[in-house]
Amino acid sequence: MSLHNKNILLCITGSISCYKSIDLYRRLKKAGAKVKIIVSDAATKFISPYIFESFGEEVFEDDAFKSPLSHIDLSKFADIILIAPATYNTINKLAAGIADTLITLTVAASPDKPKLLVPAMNPNMYANKILKDNLNKLAKHNFYVVSPETGNAACGDFGEGKFPEIDDIIFGVESVFKKKTLNGRKVLVTAGATREYFDPVRFMSNGSSGKMGISIANAALKAGAEVKLIALNIDDRIQYINRRIKIISRTDFNGLKESLFDEFKKSDILFMAAAVSDYGFKEKSPVKIKKSGNTGAGGTLKVELMQNEDLLKAVSKIKKDGQIVFGFAAETGSAIENGRKKLSEKSLDYIFVNDVSKDIIGGDENEGFLITKAGEVNRFEREKKESLAEKLIEEISFPA
Ligand SMILES: Cc1cc2nc3c(=O)[nH]c(=O)nc-3n(C[C@H](O)[C@H](O)[C@H](O)COP(=O)(O)O)c2cc1C
């Protein structure tokens, strides 16, 4: 999802991390949003409004009396009010219903608009029970929060309270706009490729990058689910996985099988996006196989492969009423026909089939067909895996 044509009212309050809102502003613009900015009096001590003016933006300083209806106009403009950074002072004022600054007054005039707070402060201030109680109170009134990070604050204290990564804030803004179709659901996703070892250092694998599975996990989180991701050899992509997703790292078929059966029991829906090896090695050498003594005529090394169990089929067999199993299949022709066959053989609820001859494996984009248990076939044109994943998530419906 992009933020194309979304109107974002960015409110900056007086934290030492105010300078990070410049980066945030640029990312919001890059994502296609229209942005208006209010800076509190305290914030102007840390950054100059002139920075945003030099980007061509109109900046509202904290004087509600300068232009009599600015709080009403700004409220009408906003699809979302993003307060980043949000100070201890402003958060507590909002919870008390105080409206004595342009920011708090605009929020007061916007009860039906979503408000996203990005608290940033000293760890002791963030741990203060007054703040915690007030954040809980605000959660009942259309306020959302992007949790701060744990680390060293500017003052040197260690703990929770640091301004989060910009990616997390953008993710939070996008999440606010998403329909919460998976609210309260437990979602399990597998992503990446298994590695089958035939000695301690050598393995057989495939080119799956894990991007589709990661995109599904992120999209499910935005849709309100609690998400766990069984991650197979995707350490290089860990930064793309939202930090609210619980990651279970496994390497090979056996590890995946163990976690899959363990976690599936606790899940409402499984997305099996990992590329699981159909074969493993019959024997695994406990030591690195040396060239001398093992190489046969013509420079060959003989290893024997054994077919692995079909995990998707096996997990579907233990599926309980109300659970959903969503499979992914890579085909090189007759995608719909093969997809239908797999869906029925493996008792799946949904299958997404793609034609891997179209340079999809490992790439940023995907296309294919979603086939449902009821026999419906829906074509999805080529697009970024992130946006495709959001569309696939929207297609899920739980049995009544
Ligand atoms: C050097 C300095 C750094 C500050 N950093 C923070 C901060 O990171 N978070 C916070 O909540 N308050 C911080 N404050 C306190 C706020 O600036 C102060 O409470 C102010 O009244 C906030 O007003 P506002 O919420 O209208 O912007 C800091 C104050 C000073 C002097």
Features of this protein?
single chain, 400 residues, alpha/beta, Rossmann fold, 2 domains, eight-stranded mixed beta sheet, six-stranded parallel beta sheet, 14 helices, 31% helix, binds flavin mononucleotide
Report on this structure.
40% of the residues are buried. The chain folds into two domains: 7-177, 3-Layer(aba) Sandwich (Rossmann fold); 186-395, CoaB-like (Rossmann fold). It has an eight-stranded mixed β-sheet with strand order 13-12-9-14-17-18-19-20, with helices on both faces. Helix 5 crosses helix 8 and helix 10 packs across helix 14. The protein is of the alpha/beta class. It contains 14 helices and 20 strands. Flavin mononucleotide (FMN) binds next to helix 5.
List strands and helices in order, with pairings.
Elements: E1 7-12, H1 20-30, E2 34-39, H2 43-46, H3 50-54, E3 59-61, H4 70-77, E4 80-86, H5 88-96, H6 102-108, E5 115-119, H7 123-127, H8 129-139, E6 143-145, E7 149-152, E8 158-162, H9 166-177, E9 186-192, E10 196-197, E11 203-204, H10 211-222, E12 226-232, E13 246-250, H11 253-264, E14 269-272, E15 279-281, E16 305-307, H12 311-317, E17 324-331, H13 335-345, E18 350-355, E19 365-372, E20 377-384, H14 385-395
Parallel strand pairs: 1-2, 1-4, 2-3, 4-5, 5-6, 9-12, 9-14, 12-13, 14-17, 17-18
Antiparallel strand pairs: 7-8, 10-11, 15-16, 18-19, 19-20
Helix pairs in contact: 4-6, 5-8, 10-14
The protein binds flavin mononucleotide.
